[in-house]
Amino acid sequence: MEHLDVNSNNIKRINKYLKYRALCSQLELYNLIPTPPLRELDRVIELMSIALRISDNCKWIDDYIRTRTERDYLGYWSKKYVILTPTSLHDIYIEAFSKHYDLMNFIDSYANGTDRILFLRRIDSMQEPFVSVILSNSIDLDCIIGPHNQLPDISVFEFLKQYSKAMCLRFDPSEIIDGLFESDYYLNGYTDWQLESLRAYADINR
Asked: Is the pLDDT of residue 3 over 80?
């Protein structure tokens, strides 16, 4: 019986990965995003199914994204980082499924004009997703999404302070970091040193 149970579990895992690969193919993401670990696979499949429905039902979004990108210039760079804007829904999917899964929560608000989605990349690897930034109401930088939905290191916050000043945007690092400590759920995956560094940085910027 134990041997049969193991085989049954293996078959379930294989079927999940086959479903994941089929969704990747339908969304044209195959070989463009990292394969998720098994523990994240159910969530990724669910989000990809949502993405597929959006793509099928909202083909106007790509034109809307291009229009906003051409109209509102939000690019910026330093010696280490650069801000880019998506040019299509496909760009957003690549970013979201490169372990920034919470980015999927902002597609509706992006489509209705409430939020803007920005990509923060390293200068030396501009094609590789790094950090996603949400600009709300055209003025507030109030959400930062790093890999595995964690906050990035302090150097990214410093860059965003420069960016917000140059673009006349509101940015409060302490408010974003304080939000991290509101629930034990959000603290998973951080080391004690990372948490102490973020807390100290928030205190400095109050």
From this structure: no
